Description:
single chain
Amino acid sequence: MRISAASLVVSSLALAACSGGDVVVQRSESPTAFSGDTYVQYSAAYGANAISIYNPPFAPEATVDAVLAAARERYASGQYRFFAGPPPEDWNGYTIRIAFGRILGNSNLCAKPEQPLFPAAAGRTELLAEYCYGGILVTEARGWAPALTGPDDPHLKQVVAGMVAELFAYRPRRGSKPPRN
């Protein structure tokens, strides 16, 4: 029995609608990013990871608290730890930079965190998350959600948790071999 391409598309759209497909997260496989994305899980697991927020859509403290809560809930086991503000003694030197808004072109928040941000299309929220070691871009993810209503909007939790998970996902570059067990 042959399945047409159209029926596959309709089926996948129906599944996306059932699974809350209103939040989208995409990891960038940037050729300009530092190759550290192949060991990002190990780097992130040792010590605490800083989180910096740019262009928060709500009160800065409430936005930071909501983002930290989403990241901590996603990794409730303590596999990865997060903080904002002054670094604790066990800071691993890595920072997740999250920008609310659209950044045009091949931008790098790690090297230039204060670059201009542009508003998202009406009715939607756009975010960019980059995992940085100082000014070095390790990996990045983008997220889209319906327009957020506040820092307690469940879409914010979904998109932040999804972006952090994508930043820390093991994805070897083409041609590389998986680690041996």
